[in-house]
Amino acid sequence: MFSRAYRAAITLPPLLWVVIFLLVPYGLLFCYSFWSVSPSQAIVHSWTLDNYRELFRVNVYLQTLFRSMWIAARVMIFSLLLGYPLAYYLSFYAGARKDLFYQLVIIPLWVSYLVRAYAWKTILGSDGVLNTLLQYVHFTKHPLEFLLYSPFAVVLTLTHIYTPFAVLPIYAALEHIPRNLVEASHDLGASPLQTFWRVIFPLSIPGVLAGATFAFVLSLGDFLAPLLLGGPSGIMISNIVVSLFGAAYNWPLGAAISLCMLILVVSLLFLSEKLEKKWSFR
Amino acid sequence: MATTTEPVVTSAKSGLQPLLAIRNVAKSFGKNPVLRDISLQIAEGEFLTILGESGSGKTTLLRIIAGFESANSGEILMEGERLDLLPPYRRRVNTVFQHYALFPHLTVEENVGYGLRVAKLPKDEIAARVSEALAMVKMTAFARSKPGKISGGQQQRIALARALINRPRLLLLDEPLSALDANLRRQMQVELKSLQREVGISFVFVTHDQEEAMVMSDRIALLRMGELEQVASPREIYSHPATAYTAQFIGHTNLLRGEIKSGVVRCKSLSWRVGLPDGPALFSLRPENIRIVPSATGGSDINLVAFHGKIRHQAFHGATELLQIVGADGLTLSVRTATRENRQGDLHLEFFPTDAVPVRESPEKRG
Amino acid sequence: MRAARNTSRWLPWHSIVVFGFLYLPIVTLIIYSFNGSGVGGFPPRNLTLDWYRMLFADDAIWESVLNSVIVAMAAMAISLTFGIPAALALDRANFPGKTLFRRLVLLPLILPGIITGLSLLMLFRAADVKLSLLTIVLGHGTALISVATTEVFAGLQKLDRAQEEASLDLGANYWQTFWRVTIPNLRLSIIGAALLIFTLSMDEIAVSFFLIGRDNTLPLEIWGRLRRGITPEINAISSIIFVFSLIAIVSWYRLRVGSEGKPEIAAEAVETVA
Fold first, then answer.
1. Which of residues 47-76 of A touch C (CB under 8 A)?
2. What is the chain B residue with the closest CA to C1?
3. Which residues of A touch B118 (CB under 8 A)?
4. Distance between CA C169 and CA C188 in Å, rounded?
5. Topology of domain C49-273, per CATH?
6. A57-278 fold
7. What is chain B's mean pLDDT, rounded?
8. Residue B295: which domain range?
9. B280 and B150, same structural domain?
10. Which of B32, B33, B74, C251 makes an SS bond possible with B25, Cβ 3.0 to 4.6 Å?
């Protein structure tokens, strides 16, 4: 139905943009990761595997990567634990208030990341709201130091930020489940709990995978929360990259780490997609 | 104000207490009354159809029996014990859903065996019963398929097997044939009926299709706007409709409105003797009960009622045709007769007075 | 359909707790924007509007707000100009590399901002482009094309193809049909996308972090101050940001729900990425 000219007109401009601003930059990332930096802070365009060797040789990179993955994993788990029952409540129990509750979920989603991270910073500090409140009610005598500038603070803040990201795909998946399946399950003798495990949960797995992927991937690459709240023990892999592009001026090494992150993220997305297809029954 | 005829358990097999007793069940959604004071009994081994238009409450009634809705008042007893107090997963009742509701993430045999797995029966027993059930609905070849890959008619059989395998006391079917095309539908009607005979349990079938109801049922319960109009066997409900609504909903009919004085009813130019009290009256006359006679043979039998008029409309239905005859007095009668070419001019008709069945009025009901 | 008693008991409580977790920090933030004695400390005393007064006199902040608005409008223009054709292309055209194209367009939505930001930084370095508001605009535009694409794509699914066929049948050519039929039908999706893109651009910090030149956007201005020390003035500007975002999102939601069905942009985006 659509002429060649029409199809060309709608395809070429975005294609061009994507090539210039996505493909080429990733390509540059690739190239940079194989270059090096001279002592005089100039980029040397000779191809070498030094950067990658560095990553595996020096412990701090792998250590930080694993710590970042551990933080991301915890954020993922907590987001799911908090988010799934909420999505379930929204889909099956909210009734007339569904609309309102749905808006309540998406509002934090789109409110500035910075505002929300900042809010936690003011709450968790030793002079912050939480500590002074606990002392005020004589629950504690001294401020709890671990609350801020620790991995705990990072996990807490990121969970706060990514729980809505987890809720939405789970909610979407639950909404897609025809209600007559639940009735059919009851009709055949399954109690509500059995119905949940045998029918509802299996059919919601694609949503769970999507939400988990979101939470994990975005947490893994986060650098703002660690900078604001992580302290020295809460540094994540992206912070190392940031400093390599900043004060520690080593773009090639930073590019190498970024490329590894990119590959890791894309692999996780592919894996998630494969699993989602396997568990999707439409 | 009840317009129900008190249902008598007419099934040949009974004599004991009914399998299911619905007593004075009423249900409203918000301010909207959907069922008003329904009382009905279902016998063992009976095929009962709940027939009604959309909005009549038939699906709601079915869902109340299944347990997905609860009635606002009234009770339901199964073999003497309160059924309505149990949640759906404890009732010995199973449902075939309108769109089958097969679990998309399970294979056909997993679907069929679902109820047995939930009841934690031993694996070999489940396997045996599943193959038996699949054989019964002739779907053995599809055991490992997923529901998404089989046709509508096949899904319907699986839904049936999945329900029957649990050996319920009562099977509920919520318009299961409405999604099928006409030919498949007719075929499934026959299969369902013979299946019910074979299995021997009571079926409660919901539909809006009166032909379907007549083909399959032992008894029909006609529901109109939340109340039972009539509950009787298909033949009974057809030849002796209780109300004008029933007469018109099931099959075609002529509604004759007349006045009775001293044992004679007059309806425009027609008149005949009836043993009914004076006053206004309404009669249902089936088009096939009116015969066409060659010319005015001078009233071949004074017991017959005669009429003549011009053909206004002729509708071809294949084996039969439906003629609309308009008389000089303005009365229009529909007549069903074997198809014949070239009907013209005046036609002379007659019918037996006993074929004009008196029916009650069906006043317009407010929702 | 009756659910188990125990589930229906703790489920609402859980939901209340989670909503509390999501909103209490922000509410606290707002409360303390009126607190005379600083960002912490319990209970808040000295309720005052001083911080808001200080905020309104703060030129640097308002300059950055202006920059942010300019950037957001420009980003909106870019994202829509390239995102709408992208959605159409995904819906109607087949070409080699279409799958790769689809994935690339949607990737910035789920990729951590640092990767998008850094790769673009390298691009500008290589092309010898100085960092400025322009580079930030290009960064936002690239990252947010995916938002425009998903919204418009969803709107296209609801579009009745027969309308466009009727237009062609009646003599309009492709260009005319596009403007007279296609775009008007996508009106709601486009407005929704615009609203969303604007809001996200105003709040964007991760990508902007790497592309900033001399002029700050609002989030970067705030970020700079955070490094120097926290005052409730930041609470004040944050509260205002929150209120505006709230209005924007609720408007967006009502727009979408008005055109039928629940919007699930994040979910849809994931489904289309997957």
1. none
2. B68
3. 188-190, 194, 198
4. 25
5. MetI-like fold (1.10.3720)
6. MetI-like fold (1.10.3720)
7. 89
8. 252-358
9. no
10. B74
